[in-house]
Amino acid sequence: MTVESNRTHGLRRCGVALAFALAAAAPLGAQTLNVVMASRLSVLDPVLTTAHQTRNHGYMIYDTLVATDAENKIRPQMASWNVSPDGKSYTFTLRDGLKWHDGAPVKAEDCVASIKRWAQQDKMGRQLMPLVTSMDVLNDKSFRIVMSTPGELMLAAIAKPSGLPLFMMPKRVADSPATKAITDYTGSGPFKFIASEFSPGVKVVYEKNKEYVPRQEPPSGMAGGKVANVDRVQWLSMADTMTAVNALLNNEIDYMETVPFDLMPVVQANDKVTLRAVDKMGNQPMYRFNQLHPPFDNKLIRQAAMYAIGQEDLLKAQVGNPEYYKTCAAVFGCGLQYASNGEADMIVPSNIAKAKELLKAANYDGAPVVILQATDIAMVNAIPVVMAQQLRQAGFKVTLQAMDFMTLVSRRANKEPISNGGWSIFVTAWHMSEIADPLRNYGVSASGDKAWFGWATAPQVESLREEFLMAPTEEKRKSIAEQLQKSMLQEGVTVPLGQIITASAYRKVLTGVLDTPAPIFWNIKKTGK
Amino acid sequence: MLSYIGRRILATIPVVLTVAILVFALLRLTPGDPALIIAGDSATPSQLAEIREHMGIGKPIPVQFLLWAGQVARGDLGVSLHSRTPVVQMISGRIGPTLALATSTILLSTLIAIPLGVFAAWHRGTKVDRAIMAFSVLGFSVPIFVTGYALILLFAIKFAWVPVQGYKQLADGFWPFAQHLILPTLALSTGFVALIARITRSSILEVMGEDYIRTARAKGIKEHAVMLSHALRNSAVPIITILGISIALLISGVVVTESVFNLPGLGRLVVESVLARDYPLIQGLILLFSMVYIGVNLTIDVLYVVFDPRIRY
Does the global pTM surpass 0.90? Predict the structure, then answer.
């Protein structure tokens, strides 16, 4: 007997109560989508933080100049573009009917101001801006970006769906300092943010932007026509995922962004709920060594650790269901544009014998290894436990230190030795679209003291990244990415741990849920309750 | 009596100040930098410094303390580092569910536990007494989240009598309000019923051996009257004490209960603010909880005197 069949009568009563409650909160007759997102929205400025929830908020209320479709191809969104024959000059032309939520028309000067603010914070933007020789407003509807090299990477940067996506804001907002949070949330996207109903940690409310003029093409990925079919979208925060699953099964919510792996069987057993991977790209777990102190200041010892750590056991412990993970060596994302398989034998299987051999050759003296484990990050919290055991099997002396993510963020910034609160390895995860090329991938950072946490020193990695930035053709970029893959792993700069796919769940009364790398709520229709 | 209350209030001031200083110092000693979380991995050191400046956490700690203390003295608890919403507004927006849950829990616990304790004492050594005490041990031993999930499974998922989660204000109607509070109240009350019932029973049994109880019985007063008018009243001090402790314990209980039943109250706000290292919000919340503790203690002190005029400080 299913849970559903037992509670029809009660559900009806509950539904009546819910209907009364919703009627009190929303305009009469408004169709509301009740959603539980993977995390709470706390920062509302999409330029200030790379937090996914802030990015998702951005997609609700802002629009993008260009966007990636379901095949990861770049498509026009607010603007179409023309490229000069030498590939260095990009002229963007805004489409008709674009308006801010306050009714003012979207102008080219708004777009230029938005790009400038975004480029101060975005990793790709910061690397590309020195190559921009001019960025000029031509008239109200068009502007031009001229670069010293062909501008394909600039287009890729402004189209990327995650990290810091480039959202368009009115000039008066975009002129704010990039490090100071904005307080005016006027966008031009398919939904409007209802500030008066925003309760941090409880509820975020969006209403359909009735003035929004969608593109005519069908939606595809983050591109195409963004048609809002529901009047309101409410993001409800739920601290406990079990509660969120129960609420979904009990018809109290419509959509749950991420279902924990251990609760998937409960959701799958319910015939009124769909469980599926909406985000096909998924995430890349990865780890970095601290290369300032022993034992991982020694390249051979880093390689020994990489041989000892095998992806399959880690991913099995973290995810369990093999449908939702994949082993792969690609630093730039499994199956993506710049993926390659160099040095896979070092990082995919666990080879304890080889690890022991390397440790012996390196004269490892039993220097302690401290692994930082963020217990509140559901994507990677189990990985360090298995990793520690694999390293112990190879002969490392390992201590696992459990902490919340906030503490980890502070601890990993500590450059002191272990005796002074330092560390040896930390594990984190990125959305695939955030590591898909050497410019946006934080792991491609090996400039010693100035590098990303771990402070790797590998001049060839830095120079290859520079070459990638200046490469004139896509073929050349692919070749450089392959070399980078090998250099990165030989030096142990950043080590990928395959791919993890997450699944969303939604009531079957919803149709039109698109496959996208970030959760979006246009195109979704709700029929019935 | 008024001067006694006045003296008790004055005695609380140094306690509040000590709590404020401790909270401020402890938070700064805890690892974690909110600017790092907000900025993410893309920030350069200079941008991080700018963000800290904008957030007001780039200043020296003594300066931060003085600024904060000055604000508090003006009734301003500052602004949340993350949402940029005034702390007072955030707390007032979240206090309703916690207040409702705490009130319903204390009421339900008291209404059930005291009669249960009296009944157990009255039937000391019988099966009824043993059953009540067995329930008491169980209620006190089972964690709130286990009770909560069991109640959800039975009454929300299986019978669908009440919703799984959420909160409705009283303004939305009494039934929706009550419907959303039934399960959390039951889950949270279980432990308190057990605790208060045990204390009530043992307190009553203690006074049952007193001379005045024997005198009352010798005067021919009926047993239930002896129990309620003589034994219970004279057992009030430990019962009031445990009620006070229960109110204090509720604050930790609501954290779990609000998470399990998704009540947007102060318990969840505490967890969220600590995980985000939202200093002004944490400070505001701890100050509020300290005031509640102090207020409860003060009330208990006053009630002691009301119930037992022999007590003097």
Answer: no
